[in-house]
Amino acid sequence: MAEEAKTAELRKIADQLRLDVVKMVHDAKDGHPGPALSIADIITTLYFKELNIDPRNPRWEDRDRFILSKGHACPVLYAALARRGYFPVEEYAGLRKLDCILQGHPCMKKTPGIDMTSGSLGNGLSIGVGMAIAAKYRKKAYYTYVMLGDGEIQEGIVWEAAMCAKKYQLNNLIAFVDHNGWQSGDSVDKVSGLLPILPKWEAFGWHCQSIDGHDFAQIVTAIANAKKANGPSVIVAKTIKGKGLAYMENDNSWHKRVPDGDQLAIAQQVLGGARQ
Amino acid sequence: MSKYKGTREAFTQALLEMAESDDRLLLVSPDSLKAMRATPFADRFPERYIEVGIAEQNAVAVAAGLASSGLVPFVATYAGFITMRACEQLRTFVAYPQLNVKFIGINGGIFGGEREGVTHQFFEDLGIVRSIPGITVVAPADEHQVFQAVKAIATIDGPVYLRAGSGREHVVYKEDAPFELGKVRVLKEYGSDAALFASGFVLNRAVEAAEILSSRGIKVTLADVHTLKPIDSETVTGILEKCGAAVTVEDHNIIGGLADAIAMVSTENCPVPVERVGLRDIFPGSGPAEEVLDYYGMSVNDIVNAVVKVMKKKK
């Protein structure tokens, strides 16, 4: 397949995941659509192109691992897992309800394909370090990917993990920072003294790249570069919170907000409702 | 002559012996190798010694990652830095997904902290961990029991918190005394005037108190409650029914530890008067270990008096 066609295919899948997110949150009447949509293109690239996984065998020992450290964005991960065949899309209806497999935040014991429980911010990278060390100790070739939010890297444990990954030269660990510039309360810049992000990782000795997190070619190239690095690699992906829906883009009120019927209809129109 | 210098050496020895035949066992250290007396493990198995630096939260979360990949990490450092600094990581990323991580917390109790003072006296650890679902909580009495207990906890698949000491523990058990995880062990059965439940490094004091009481004609049943969670409800209930009154003895805040565990069983199964010997919900001061225990109400005499007091409340 030509590159253009491959990108078009990924775009189509990403649109589907975005629509799934909006529908899930609408039906559940609860959830975080904005932070889910900002990572939809990276999640699509990982689950439909990069990750070495087997949906028929979710606990396959040699599989690549993925940790959604910013666990509140889980609807898009649930959508990717469902569309990849880990469980039927009918499970969407259970999101955030009792006795269902889709918890409010990811739970590795309840949802097939979730490699690690997450949602309490800041912790995913340390867990990824553990997985990557385990791969080296066990002489396994799998990669561990961690998706961090730009807000959550304000947590100190992230930098504890960064030091540790550098010490062990974990060239099988690839972290994304979803740099949409917003966190629950306000813009990342206003809430913290974090910016600029990349020099922090450089100072901790990581292989660093900065990309447009909605450009499939850049995401793919960055992952390929990361795999060639000598140590842990971070990809700071500039993204737009709520990407894909004009009414949601860069409006932080969509951090946690439920789309109404009209807004769902717009999403179906924009993102291709015919594929329901 | 004891086999070890203390509970920390006993831990390392048990881990070393098990690691010879089980390559899943790893040691995760937040700069605690020397404090744990675990250098022999690092020398023998350098690739299985994960040093993360002074970063307990990272240590526990890294262990979660290791365990999710089929390994069995032991995270070993000061009790409070596991249960307080890294409490959330322990709760959310180990206990909630039921990962097979073993926590060894040293310097448990005010006896452990000695002259270090409150920052290194950990008398809330058992209460904190007991309130987290799905984690086994163990407080052995001496080095021989720690050695056996470390081997016992490795046989179960799931998270465990084990309290170890500071090197000042008194030996109560014989070297080959077995340890049965989850079971209360009746140590002395002089009679049924009162039940004496003890846990951890003050067990020797409870033994001494039981002897003094016996010489005065007060006959107690003394039980070692080394597994605080899950509590051996059946044995505890049987002892309570037999004795009709109980005293708990622990080097821990009277809130959250052994006293609460026994009171819980009593309330649900056999309501009887319970007197609690332990740290009475205050921050203690620093000082020599034995003096600190005596000063804060955990002397042998305090235990004797508690038994006399509780017997007067018997119906």
Automatic annotation (TrEMBL), chain A:
The keyword Kinase does not apply. Residues 12-272 form the Transketolase N-terminal domain. InterPro entries: THDP-binding, Transketolase_N. Keywords: Thiamine pyrophosphate. It holds the Pfam family Transketolase_N. The keyword NADP does not apply. Its cofactor is thiamine diphosphate. Belongs to the transketolase family. PANTHER family: TRANSKETOLASE N-TERMINAL SECTION-RELATED (PTHR47514). This is Transketolase. It comes from Anaeroselena agilis.
UniProtKB/TrEMBL annotation, chain B:
Pfam families: Transket_pyr, Transketolase_C. Residues 5-171 form the Transketolase-like pyrimidine-binding domain. This is Transketolase C-terminal domain-containing protein. Gene3D superfamilies: 3.40.50.920, 3.40.50.970. Signal peptide: none annotated.
